Amino acid sequence: MNYELFIGLRYTRAKRRNRFVSFISLTSMLGIALGVAALIVVLSVMNGFQQELRTRILGVASHVQITGPDNQLADWPAVAERAAKNPQVVATAPYVNAQGMLSFDSAVRGSIIRGVLPEAEGKVAEIGTHMLAGRLDSLTAGSFNMVLGSELARALGARVGEKVTLIAPQGLVTPAGVVPRLKQFTVSGIFEIGMFEYDSGLALVHLEDAQRLYQMGARVSGVRLKLVDLFQSRQVTRALMLDKAMGDVYVSDWTRSHANFFRAVQIEKNVMFIILTLIVAVAAFNIVSTLVMAVTDKQPDIAILRTLGASPGGIMKIFIVQGVLIGVIGTLIGVAGGVLLAWNIDVVVPFIERVVGMQFLAKEVYYISELPSDLHLRDVVTIGIVSLVLSFLATLYPSWRASRVNPAEALRYE
Known about the structure:
Blueprint: H1 3-13, H2 19-58, E1 64-67, H3 76-84, E2 89-104, E3 107-116, H4 118-124, E4 131-134, E5 145-149, H5 150-156, E6 163-174, E7 177-191, H6 196-199, E8 202-206, H7 207-213, E9 222-227, H8 233-242, E10 250-253, H9 254-257, H10 259-297, H11 299-307, H12 312-343, H13 345-356, H14 377-403, H15 407-411
Parallel strand pairs: 3-8, 5-7
Antiparallel strand pairs: 1-9, 1-10, 2-3, 2-6, 2-9, 4-7, 5-8, 6-7
């Protein structure tokens, strides 16, 4: 072990004459630990919210969807078969997307009407696993059954087994003028995804019933695809658009259709990272005051080392070791505490809620009523590196000041 490392470690362990220096060292270490732990936990919770939001959206939306011009696709079986040849595509499902007005008693609500094939829809979406009442496979051709979102059913006041009237915007031309097209549907199920956008505005019917009601013949609005890896959606979209055998189609993926949700979460995550990094920076730069006081306290020692032949660079390394060690210990404690807390957030938060007697995310207000956590190794490594770099930068000026100590001046009054 070279003498710079040996003396730097000894200075860190030794009891100082000035206890205030030891106190500042301890507070700097704890400050770094708390900042690192808080940063790891917050980023893990933000990752959890992002994953939960993505799961809920993609439980209804598709990874990739293929539509035709004018929102109509004629030869959809051929398009679905061609798309299924991509190794990333695991399932395909046709759909009809249209608008309508639902009426029940005196309540009227606008809605998105989606025609689906229940056996195929279950392979690309998870609506069937979020049914509050009834079953998705109750949608059969010619039965004119309908599955409603929970908020939409609540707004209409309709329950399973009751009939609602669907008013299609395409009217019938009669000698008396244009008459709106009306059709009664029986509510055969109610689902709840947990996203207000879908629960309050989506109604599902069988594909053939939608085709008949909206006079689409054998055409559909498009084909929905499910991928092996949803993060490969852009590459799959690009590959399908370059495939000339697909014909005149438009291909989009979930990152475009719901970009605003994920962009908002990502921006918030980045802002929180910057804010909490400043907390780590404040704690790290407390090392400056620690080392400045340590240099003042150790001036006679520095002078003796210089007279024994120590170079200014060697003196500088001694105090760099001392400051970096504070940062390393604080970072390791913070990483360990942050990782443990992020892994057990589902236990810690309910315990705090019971102690304070309140719920942080009330189910009546928030659709995500529990704090999710998704710990990423990349985030932990990044936070640890940032903390160590800040700690190292904080040691440079005090260490440089130590290397500039004049031995004669330091020993004049000793």
